[in-house]
Amino acid sequence: MSSLIRRQIPIAIVAMLSTILILEYFTTIESIDSMGKLSAEWAVVIGSFVMGLGSVGLVRRHGKIVMSMNKTDSPYSLLLLVFFFATTIMGFSLFGIGGPVLNNAYKSMYNDIFMVMSTVTWGLAGFFMVSGAYRAFVARNKQGLVLVVAGLFTLIGLVPIGAAIWPPFVAIQEWIKNVPGSAASAGISLGAALGGLSFALRLILGIERTWLRGSE
Amino acid sequence: MIYILVLGIPFIRPIGIPLQISEGTRDMYNALEALKPGDVVLYAWTIDLSAWSELGPGMVAIAAHILSKPDVKLIMVGELATPLCYERIIDTIRNTISKDLFGKEYGKDYCILMTAGGESGMKAFMTDIRGAISYDFYLNSLDDLPVMEGVRDGKDFTIAFTAITSAYQPHIRQIVDLCNVPLGALMMGAVAFGAMPYYKAGVLFSVMAGLGSCAEYELLTYKGPAITRMDSLSLSAVMVVILMIAANIKFYSTKVSVKVESDKDG
Amino acid sequence: MEILESGRNFDFVLLIAILVIMYIAIFRASKGKVPTLRKLPFVDAIDNIIGRCVEMGRPLTFSAGEIRDIQSSSSTLITAALSVFGYVARESVKRGAILYVYTDVPGVYLLEQEILRQAYVAEGKPEEYRSERVVPFLAGQGKSMKLGIMGFAARIKPAGSIITGVWLSSPPYIVECMAEQGAMQICGGTGGVGMSVFAALSDFAIIGEENYALGAYLSRDPLQLANIAGKDYVKLVLLAILVIGFVLASIGSSALFDLLSW
Known about the structure:
The complex is a heterotrimer of chains A (216), B (266) and C (262).
Chain A: H1 2-26, H2 30-67, H3 74-91, H4 99-136, H5 142-158, H6 160-165, H7 168-205, H8 210-213
Helix pairs in contact in A: 1-2, 2-3, 5-7
Chain B: H1 2-12, H2 23-33, E1 40-44, H3 52-67, E2 73-79, H4 82-96, E3 110-115, H5 119-127, H6 129-132, E4 159-164, H7 169-179, E5 183-187, H8 189-201, E6 204-209, H9 210-220, H10 225-265
Parallel strand pairs in B: 1-2, 1-4, 2-3, 4-5, 5-6
Helix pairs in contact in B: 1-10, 2-9, 3-4, 3-9, 5-7, 9-10
Chain C: H1 9-30, H2 41-56, E1 60-65, H3 75-95, E2 99-103, H4 106-122, E3 134-136, H5 143-156, E4 160-166, H6 171-180, E5 184-189, H7 192-201, E6 204-207, H8 210-219, H9 222-250, H10 255-260
Parallel strand pairs in C: 1-2, 1-4, 2-3, 4-5, 5-6
Helix pairs in contact in C: 1-9, 2-3, 3-4, 3-8, 5-6, 6-7
């Protein structure tokens, strides 16, 4: 009975819904179309509940850390929980609750705190990429040499100073982007798409079961 | 420290390196310039404000270009925090380009909608807009918005635009493949390389890559902050090239000295 | 009335052909004719990394992707990453390595907790399971993970890092932070920034379809291996169509293009 509930029923649900969604893409049958639309709406609702469940998990985890009164971690977890609940309460302003005060507070928090911190986070990538480039772009072998040369031409050709120093940089960069770069991307995308198709088939047929019971 | 100095100096003393307009930017400009009265543009599921410094100027310039066209409707759809980004785009256009937003009004000429559920939400929206959502971002009913009149599903859009930092495949599947709406995209530089096959095949009518493309679009339409940032970008690229050359010189000089020492011992 | 959507008839026929080819491969495997796959270099590296972590007494970290949740359109790639996680979790528990796993999506966070717990139960060590070792960075669509990983890596000082699944914009942060701690890295992605960064900066890169094949390869399940072989036969068919299309296009014929739009 437990194997029926834990394995057979979920696999049957996956197989049935997958077949409906595949047929919905290819056929003009109205009943299948409407079942496909309904599945898309269910997916939206389930996704929202998963997000809620994740929020509960987050609050539980950080609540436990705060209650443990750990000197290093508890202050940060407390800060997280304060901002979590403050944002949730301020977010009700989007439904017209709390009037302009709450609305302005929410927008101010988003524009002046969240957006600024997000921009800084993106900016940090520059430092990591520079240190990564210093570490990785070394011509240790023939492939490395090709990587270094292509990287140099692409980097210089993409910025205005490349055209100012030597105009053919731009043409070389365009060629690298349009010919070998594009061909490699297309090949990898095709392979990845096929890999995804075969994996989806494994899921639908119940051959792949790690998602059901973990290590079993 | 050196990196920060290299990035910062052009802001104090601009160099003024000339820009060349790339093919992708030109295609986007031509497509939006060709919009006629009655056309409906979908501003589709772009980033939120995180990559604003890289893609924001381009998003503002493109939105301003669309809004400047007479009798062209603009439907902006996003999820999570993206509608707040659209509000910022509108505010930026008001503050820097056109105080009266080219005479356009919310609800009559443009609107901001919100979906949920990622690609499932996109699919639900493109298949049947009123089936997916009933209200706009400000909780007005869609039937009360004149801009939504006659726009029932994805096939009613003339053209679509998106700005993304990562995956563009959901947009291609749900906008181009499902509804045959031409889609142009503004992307981060690294992501744009992977999108070139779609651009070359005609699936995307335009691929604009990063801050450079934003600056090019500003040159064609309305001057903005991206142009002033290009000098900084150029110098940072030169710095990375110097670092790469230095790393290779260090590697080979170490290799040569190890070989010389082992020859001496041998 | 047409039953099939116009413009998709050829796609439907191709899908049926793909399903038939894959079914034949799986059927042959069920009768004992299991195909042999080429050796993937990073498969041994996974075992080596776990051994390295045990010897050095430092933790191993794993992540199954960012931003995209289990119910998104990337669910197959995320599930493939979770099947690799199942193997890594079992092996780590068996050999006594400390395994930390981090994520920024709630659905995957819940699944990883369950998979890790099941690994400890399966190895007869349920009392050793620690829920704190599944670290969530659930805010800001990946931004909190980008920042959190810097402190996380500096605190736990991992000796090994395995990441696979959907990687969009966090790779530079994660790869560099782990490299700073001296961790050996196996990284897998299918496109965009992630794959380029992994190929250039990590010790072993899993590119494109290898991400999907890795779970099957590690499980050694005959039906899964047959599925991989079936996919390769399908790739041969598609390559043949490409070559035919190239030849026809070169002589100015649009026959294949018309067939594809049928």
